[in-house]
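Case study 2.
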Amino acid sequence: MNFVAPIGRTFLGFLAGVGRLSLFTANAVSHCVRPPIYPRLLGRQIVDIGYYSLPVVGLTALFTGMVLALQSYTGFARFNAESAVATVVVLSVTRELGPVLAGLMVAGRIGAAMAAEIGTMRVTEQIDALTTLSTSPMKYLVAPRLIAGTLMLPFLVLVADLIGVFGGFLIGVYKLGFNSAAYISSTWEYLEPLDVVSGLVKAAVFGFLIALMGCYHGYHSRGGAQGVGAATTGAVVSASILILVFNYGITELFFAR
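Prediction:
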Protein backbone atom coordinates (compact mmCIF):
# COMPACT_ATOMS: atom_id res chain seq x y z
CA MET A 1 0.00 0.00 0.00
CA ASN A 2 3.03 2.31 -0.11
CA PHE A 3 1.94 3.69 -3.49
CA VAL A 4 -1.17 5.15 -1.81
CA ALA A 5 0.87 7.28 0.62
CA PRO A 6 1.96 9.95 -1.91
CA ILE A 7 -1.65 10.33 -3.05
CA GLY A 8 -2.79 10.80 0.54
CA ARG A 9 -0.05 13.31 1.28
CA THR A 10 -0.95 15.30 -1.84
CA PHE A 11 -4.64 15.28 -0.96
CA LEU A 12 -4.02 16.32 2.64
CA GLY A 13 -1.67 19.05 1.47
CA PHE A 14 -4.35 20.29 -0.91
CA LEU A 15 -6.93 20.39 1.89
CA ALA A 16 -4.50 22.24 4.15
CA GLY A 17 -3.88 24.81 1.41
CA VAL A 18 -7.60 25.30 0.85
CA GLY A 19 -8.06 25.79 4.59
CA ARG A 20 -5.29 28.40 4.79
CA LEU A 21 -6.69 30.25 1.79
CA SER A 22 -10.22 30.19 3.23
CA LEU A 23 -9.06 31.61 6.56
CA PHE A 24 -6.97 34.25 4.80
CA THR A 25 -9.93 35.22 2.60
CA ALA A 26 -12.31 35.50 5.54
CA ASN A 27 -9.82 37.60 7.49
CA ALA A 28 -9.11 39.87 4.50
CA VAL A 29 -12.80 40.43 3.71
CA SER A 30 -13.53 41.25 7.33
CA HIS A 31 -10.83 43.94 7.26
CA CYS A 32 -12.27 45.35 4.01
CA VAL A 33 -15.65 46.06 5.60
CA ARG A 34 -14.40 47.32 8.97
CA PRO A 35 -12.88 50.74 9.62
CA PRO A 36 -10.38 52.22 9.44
CA ILE A 37 -9.75 52.42 5.70
CA TYR A 38 -6.56 54.09 4.49
CA PRO A 39 -7.69 56.44 1.68
CA ARG A 40 -4.17 57.25 0.49
CA LEU A 41 -3.24 53.59 0.10
CA LEU A 42 -6.57 52.83 -1.54
CA GLY A 43 -6.14 55.68 -4.01
CA ARG A 44 -2.65 54.51 -4.88
CA GLN A 45 -3.90 51.01 -5.64
CA ILE A 46 -6.83 52.35 -7.68
CA VAL A 47 -4.43 54.33 -9.86
CA ASP A 48 -1.99 51.43 -10.17
CA ILE A 49 -4.62 48.80 -11.01
CA GLY A 50 -6.98 50.95 -13.06
CA TYR A 51 -5.11 53.76 -14.78
CA TYR A 52 -1.78 52.04 -15.44
CA SER A 53 -3.47 48.88 -16.74
CA LEU A 54 -5.46 50.76 -19.40
CA PRO A 55 -2.84 50.56 -22.19
CA VAL A 56 -2.32 46.80 -22.04
CA VAL A 57 -6.04 46.06 -21.61
CA GLY A 58 -6.97 48.48 -24.41
CA LEU A 59 -4.48 47.03 -26.89
CA THR A 60 -5.57 43.48 -26.04
CA ALA A 61 -9.24 44.34 -26.53
CA LEU A 62 -8.64 46.24 -29.78
CA PHE A 63 -6.79 43.48 -31.56
CA THR A 64 -9.08 40.81 -30.11
CA GLY A 65 -12.11 42.58 -31.60
CA MET A 66 -10.35 42.97 -34.93
CA VAL A 67 -9.31 39.33 -35.13
CA LEU A 68 -12.75 38.18 -33.97
CA ALA A 69 -14.46 40.13 -36.75
CA LEU A 70 -12.05 38.77 -39.36
CA GLN A 71 -12.37 35.16 -38.23
CA SER A 72 -16.15 35.37 -37.87
CA TYR A 73 -16.49 36.72 -41.39
CA THR A 74 -14.29 33.93 -42.76
CA GLY A 75 -16.41 31.27 -41.06
CA PHE A 76 -19.84 32.77 -41.71
CA ALA A 77 -19.06 33.35 -45.38
CA ARG A 78 -19.30 29.58 -45.88
CA PHE A 79 -22.96 29.72 -44.82
CA ASN A 80 -23.88 33.09 -46.34
CA ALA A 81 -24.34 34.51 -42.83
CA GLU A 82 -21.92 37.43 -43.00
CA SER A 83 -24.54 39.77 -41.52
CA ALA A 84 -24.12 38.04 -38.13
CA VAL A 85 -20.53 39.25 -37.73
CA ALA A 86 -21.46 42.39 -35.76
CA THR A 87 -23.68 40.40 -33.39
CA VAL A 88 -21.02 37.77 -32.76
CA VAL A 89 -18.38 40.41 -32.07
CA VAL A 90 -20.42 42.40 -29.55
CA LEU A 91 -21.76 39.36 -27.70
CA SER A 92 -18.39 37.61 -27.57
CA VAL A 93 -16.57 40.69 -26.34
CA THR A 94 -19.10 41.77 -23.70
CA ARG A 95 -19.92 38.32 -22.36
CA GLU A 96 -16.60 36.48 -22.49
CA LEU A 97 -13.54 37.89 -24.17
CA GLY A 98 -13.59 41.32 -22.53
CA PRO A 99 -13.75 40.09 -18.91
CA VAL A 100 -11.54 37.03 -19.37
CA LEU A 101 -8.75 38.64 -21.38
CA ALA A 102 -8.74 41.76 -19.21
CA GLY A 103 -8.61 39.55 -16.12
CA LEU A 104 -5.72 37.47 -17.47
CA MET A 105 -3.74 40.54 -18.51
CA VAL A 106 -4.29 42.25 -15.15
CA ALA A 107 -3.38 39.01 -13.36
CA GLY A 108 -0.06 38.95 -15.21
CA ARG A 109 0.65 42.59 -14.44
CA ILE A 110 -0.96 43.33 -11.07
CA GLY A 111 -1.08 39.90 -9.45
CA ALA A 112 2.64 39.41 -9.98
CA ALA A 113 3.42 42.92 -8.72
CA MET A 114 1.36 42.43 -5.55
CA ALA A 115 2.97 39.08 -4.79
CA ALA A 116 6.47 40.45 -5.38
CA GLU A 117 5.91 43.57 -3.27
CA ILE A 118 4.27 41.85 -0.31
CA GLY A 119 6.63 38.87 -0.58
CA THR A 120 9.65 41.16 -0.42
CA MET A 121 8.15 42.83 2.65
CA ARG A 122 7.66 39.41 4.21
CA VAL A 123 11.20 38.10 3.66
CA THR A 124 12.74 41.42 4.77
CA GLU A 125 10.59 41.37 7.94
CA GLN A 126 8.79 44.61 7.13
CA ILE A 127 5.44 42.90 7.79
CA ASP A 128 6.69 41.89 11.24
CA ALA A 129 7.70 45.52 11.78
CA LEU A 130 4.15 46.65 10.97
CA THR A 131 2.81 44.26 13.60
CA THR A 132 5.34 45.58 16.10
CA LEU A 133 4.09 49.11 15.41
CA SER A 134 0.50 47.98 16.17
CA THR A 135 -0.52 48.25 12.50
CA SER A 136 -2.50 45.36 11.06
CA PRO A 137 -0.78 44.05 7.91
CA MET A 138 -4.13 42.82 6.63
CA LYS A 139 -5.65 46.27 7.04
CA TYR A 140 -2.61 48.13 5.70
CA LEU A 141 -1.49 45.85 2.84
CA VAL A 142 -4.28 43.49 1.84
CA ALA A 143 -7.56 45.37 2.27
CA PRO A 144 -6.72 48.33 -0.05
CA ARG A 145 -5.63 45.95 -2.79
CA LEU A 146 -8.76 43.81 -2.53
CA ILE A 147 -11.07 46.83 -2.61
CA ALA A 148 -9.21 48.46 -5.50
CA GLY A 149 -9.11 45.25 -7.54
CA THR A 150 -12.82 44.61 -7.08
CA LEU A 151 -13.74 48.19 -8.00
CA MET A 152 -11.38 48.85 -10.89
CA LEU A 153 -11.56 45.69 -12.98
CA PRO A 154 -15.21 46.36 -14.00
CA PHE A 155 -14.08 49.80 -15.16
CA LEU A 156 -11.28 48.23 -17.21
CA VAL A 157 -13.66 45.67 -18.69
CA LEU A 158 -16.16 48.36 -19.66
CA VAL A 159 -13.38 50.19 -21.51
CA ALA A 160 -12.25 46.90 -23.06
CA ASP A 161 -15.79 46.21 -24.28
CA LEU A 162 -15.97 49.57 -26.03
CA ILE A 163 -12.52 49.24 -27.59
CA GLY A 164 -13.09 45.62 -28.65
CA VAL A 165 -16.40 46.41 -30.35
CA PHE A 166 -14.74 49.42 -32.01
CA GLY A 167 -11.95 47.15 -33.30
CA GLY A 168 -14.55 44.85 -34.85
CA PHE A 169 -16.26 47.89 -36.36
CA LEU A 170 -13.01 49.04 -37.97
CA ILE A 171 -12.38 45.68 -39.60
CA GLY A 172 -16.02 45.21 -40.60
CA VAL A 173 -16.38 48.61 -42.24
CA TYR A 174 -12.94 49.38 -43.65
CA LYS A 175 -11.73 45.89 -44.58
CA LEU A 176 -14.79 43.68 -45.05
CA GLY A 177 -16.96 46.33 -46.70
CA PHE A 178 -19.90 46.50 -44.29
CA ASN A 179 -22.10 49.57 -44.27
CA SER A 180 -21.25 51.50 -41.10
CA ALA A 181 -24.87 52.33 -40.22
CA ALA A 182 -25.98 48.72 -40.79
CA TYR A 183 -23.09 47.42 -38.69
CA ILE A 184 -23.93 49.72 -35.77
CA SER A 185 -27.63 48.91 -36.07
CA SER A 186 -26.92 45.18 -35.97
CA THR A 187 -24.67 45.68 -32.96
CA TRP A 188 -27.36 47.51 -30.96
CA GLU A 189 -30.23 45.31 -32.09
CA TYR A 190 -29.06 42.12 -30.41
CA LEU A 191 -27.14 43.57 -27.45
CA GLU A 192 -29.05 43.26 -24.16
CA PRO A 193 -28.25 44.80 -20.77
CA LEU A 194 -27.72 41.34 -19.31
CA ASP A 195 -24.79 40.77 -21.68
CA VAL A 196 -22.94 43.79 -20.32
CA VAL A 197 -23.98 43.23 -16.70
CA SER A 198 -22.79 39.62 -16.71
CA GLY A 199 -19.40 40.75 -17.98
CA LEU A 200 -19.12 43.42 -15.28
CA VAL A 201 -20.06 40.93 -12.56
CA LYS A 202 -17.37 38.60 -13.87
CA ALA A 203 -14.92 41.49 -13.83
CA ALA A 204 -15.62 42.30 -10.17
CA VAL A 205 -15.14 38.66 -9.18
CA PHE A 206 -11.96 38.39 -11.26
CA GLY A 207 -10.56 41.57 -9.72
CA PHE A 208 -11.15 40.20 -6.24
CA LEU A 209 -9.51 36.89 -7.15
CA ILE A 210 -6.47 38.54 -8.72
CA ALA A 211 -5.85 40.74 -5.69
CA LEU A 212 -6.54 37.87 -3.30
CA MET A 213 -4.07 35.51 -4.98
CA GLY A 214 -1.39 38.19 -5.24
CA CYS A 215 -1.74 39.10 -1.56
CA TYR A 216 -2.04 35.50 -0.36
CA HIS A 217 1.05 34.19 -2.12
CA GLY A 218 3.09 37.25 -1.23
CA TYR A 219 1.96 37.17 2.40
CA HIS A 220 2.97 33.52 2.82
CA SER A 221 6.22 33.62 0.85
CA ARG A 222 9.33 32.18 2.47
CA GLY A 223 12.94 31.62 1.62
CA GLY A 224 14.37 34.89 0.37
CA ALA A 225 14.54 35.84 -3.30
CA GLN A 226 13.70 32.33 -4.48
CA GLY A 227 10.58 32.32 -2.32
CA VAL A 228 9.47 35.68 -3.70
CA GLY A 229 9.91 34.36 -7.25
CA ALA A 230 7.86 31.27 -6.43
CA ALA A 231 5.15 33.43 -4.85
CA THR A 232 4.99 35.61 -7.96
CA THR A 233 4.63 32.60 -10.23
CA GLY A 234 2.05 31.01 -7.95
CA ALA A 235 -0.01 34.20 -7.82
CA VAL A 236 -0.25 34.51 -11.62
CA VAL A 237 -0.93 30.81 -12.23
CA SER A 238 -3.53 30.42 -9.48
CA ALA A 239 -5.31 33.67 -10.43
CA SER A 240 -5.45 32.62 -14.09
CA ILE A 241 -6.87 29.20 -13.24
CA LEU A 242 -9.45 30.65 -10.86
CA ILE A 243 -10.50 33.19 -13.51
CA LEU A 244 -11.25 30.39 -15.97
CA VAL A 245 -13.05 28.29 -13.35
CA PHE A 246 -15.20 31.13 -12.04
CA ASN A 247 -15.87 32.28 -15.60
CA TYR A 248 -17.68 29.04 -16.27
CA GLY A 249 -19.56 29.20 -12.98
CA ILE A 250 -20.81 32.75 -13.53
CA THR A 251 -21.73 31.99 -17.14
CA GLU A 252 -23.73 29.01 -15.95
CA LEU A 253 -25.44 31.22 -13.37
CA PHE A 254 -26.46 33.90 -15.88
CA PHE A 255 -27.17 32.00 -19.09
CA ALA A 256 -28.04 28.40 -18.19
CA ARG A 257 -31.50 27.39 -19.31
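The longest helix spans residues 85-123.
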